[in-house]
Amino acid sequence: MTRRLGLEERVTIEYRWITEEEKIERIAPALAVAYVPLDEDSYGYPSLEGSHANKAILTTTDSGGVTELVTDSMNGYICAPEPQVLAEAMDRLFLDRPRTSAMGRAAYQRILDLGITWDNVIQKLLT
Predict the structure, then answer these.
(1) DSSP tag of 8
(2) Domain that holds residue 87
């Protein structure tokens, strides 16, 4: 996968990440971002990264903190963790591109409204 994404020169023991700007560039061609956890309740960083890139978020009812970020049908879809339900949501994202784009813009606005930035996180950790 790193070769396909053009990241092979970045994969070393001490350096395994890309900048926030590069993440946005990599996510830009995507229609939306999906966060579907297998067996964990997690913060869901891919959802934040997708939101920063103005992408609608597809997630499931068992995705933990991500359900605090996503408002169903406003900035993405929150679905039952069932293949058929997820497939139907993917179809909606694909078939209604203007709405999907609008949800992506709303996803970005949501993280701005919530103040989810590294500067704010660091400030809260220091206080």
Answers:
(1) G
(2) 30-119
